[in-house]
Amino acid sequence: MGDLSVNSSFFSSRGGSDPPSVPPCMSVDKLLPALLECFGIILCGYVAGRTNIIPATQAKGLGSFVSKFALPALLFKNMVLLDFGDVIWPFFFSILVAKVTVFFFVCVLTLLVADRESRFSKAGLFSIFATQSNDFALGFPIVEALYRNTHPEYLQYIYLVAPVSLMVLNPLGFALCEVQRRRTGEPQQQRKLRVLGSVLLQVVKNPIVFMVVIGVISHFLLAQKIPPFMEEFVDGLANSFGGAALFYLGLTMVGQLKKLTRSTVVALILLITAKLLVMPLICRGMVEVLDRGSRSSMNHTSLSNYAFLYGVFPTAPSVAIYASHYNMELEVVTSGMVIGTFLSAPIMYVSAWLLTIPWMDSDPLASALQHVSFNISIISLLALVWSVAVMLLSRKFHRIPHIFTINLFVAQLLACVGMIAWIFMAEQDNFLGQVLTFTLLYGSLYSTFIWPGESLESVCSITSDSTPLNTTCVLLLTGERLPNTIDSAFFYGKTQQCASTSCLLVEEEQKETDRQNTDIQSTRHVLVCLLLTVSLLANLSSCLWWLFNKDPGRLYLELQFFCVVANFGQGLISFAFFGLDKHLIISPFKKRLVSLWQGWGQEVTGSAASEEIRLTCTQFLTYHKEQCVRDIVHKKRCGERSTTETFLGSDLVRWLQSVGLSSGPGDALAYGSRLLEGGVIQHITLQHSFQDQALHYRFTNNKQRSNTKDKMGQNAVTSPLFL
């Protein structure tokens, strides 16, 4: 594919001219620590939310503080201190034009291809998703790390550009969402003037917009200086934004990927592509066009690079709040926010590093390409060893489509081994060894482009109803002839007996679990195949570019580095989707962590926890049980001649929120867990804790609660619940 042809002529034009040696305009060495700092805080927030250390209700409070106090104070401070004399206005208008272009491109495309029932809401929210960046929480620390020592004036563009989305583009998206409300028959909005008034009111009420306007006015009234009596107060609020915003971003990511379904995958990939690929390219292109009269070519190049990095900033979490407010396209927006945030980190790092390369000589470039290949191969090799081990231990490798997936893993692993071996073999005078290494490397690498197609074809055969021949072939290969039958439907197969006389509900649960697992696995395989297809297209573009361009230029060099990362970093993609098996890794680890946490908590506050369970159960039995039974309990058949009264865990979670006993899904889950620990409810097989899923539970009688009392120990003896 050309990514190993690392000689000096590869990096220079075919005419032999090298790029000029000019010092870089950004400090790339400080970017990695900044990324680790930002994403480390995000990870802390995610862990806090995932383990319910900070429940959803408290997270909302932190979000309100960040968006209504800390960020407005930060904007006000910087608007007052902003030096408009240093602003290069062509750059500002370039970003403005780029955002408007992407906004209308996504909007028009969505209106053309989306279904008529929801096209206006999709057009509004998707356009906002593609243009509103996480400028302050994530973007500002990155820009500060890159340009603080070389171009500190670039930091102020964050405060100039960010309000463009809030005051110009977002209202257009809100208007489309309001139009969708009217079309779906909701009575809140009936007239166009009311729609316009509602949108304008939302913009004016936004404290971020309000403080930007106040800050600009104060800039001229206060002569670019905050009065001493309020300076410390404003600084205190403004300085609290960074860490709190990143921590809140991690909290908002909890549980969002569960909402991802096969029907949203295509829209999600297109949106992420528009945000992380199309937006930075258009931003850079607009600067190249509109800033031709810059003060110097070096400054012009630096601004175009800055525009590219700005475009890579991921979507702001506030877009998920908009989707929740309108109750539209929440699954796509929330999942896209999570995936886009974590994809942006390697893209920003690699892009910033590559943008310094044109000022380097050809020999260091060859060495740099080799080092990148070697380092990414080692990391990917470790990830693939783990992924293969997980696949083998989970015993999924003999199933379709996993049988193709493990072949893909092995091909990726051998490609990494071949790349590592090539680094050492290329320096030795061993022709036979070089040939064998080259064969291993490219044979494995090309295999990684073939196996995703096989995997995708198997997924399509599983999810499609139009493949009876394949199903019959699998049946003949895995089944056995059944004797003493004249029914053709039971001529060939495997014998199955119910293991329990009351298994109908258990079978229903198992079917639902299997269906969810199948959807999740299918979605994962489709996503992996699509991401690897991007790598294949990049390699194809690299070959065609080299063949048909006499002077490939530095963009070709950037494409080559992308191909290296994409080719030998495939293992990281495989690990992300398949390396953390739920049943083999996550669930046991979670149970162990919960048991340790509960054990420590019982030692410290054991009696307090039992008292909380007792009070919850007493309150529920006294005031709420009868109404709950009437609302969610239904009689269901559990055997040929037997029935039972049950309810779903997900139904109880929604009911607890609807009657005000809990303020969110997390609180409702904790409330239901206390009811189960107190013996008020139980799973029909006693094998599951309380979960917000389609699992069947039932209310217990006095005798069953007495048995639960014995299990809970002496702490429960004095509880009037069990008398």
UniProtKB/TrEMBL annotation:
Top-level taxon of origin: Eukaryota
Segments of this protein annotated with the region Disordered: 1-22, 701-723
Comp. bias regions, Polar residues: 1-15
Coiled coil region boundaries: none
GO biological process assignments: intracellular signal transduction; negative regulation of BMP signaling pathway; transmembrane transport
Cellular compartments per GO CC: membrane
Transmembrane segments: 31-49, 61-81, 87-113, 125-143, 155-177, 198-221, 233-254, 266-287, 307-325, 337-360, 372-393, 405-425, 431-451, 525-547, 559-580
InterPro entries (UniProt xref): DEP_dom, GPR155_DEP, Mem_transp_PIN-like, mTOR-Rac_regulators, WH-like_DNA-bd_sf, WH_DNA-bd_sf
Domain DEP stretches: 646-701
Annotated compartments: Membrane
Membrane topology label: Multi-pass membrane protein
Transmembrane recorded as keyword: yes
Keywords: Membrane, Transmembrane, Transmembrane helix
Main location: membrane
Protein name: G protein-coupled receptor 155a
Organism: Cyprinus carpio (Common carp)
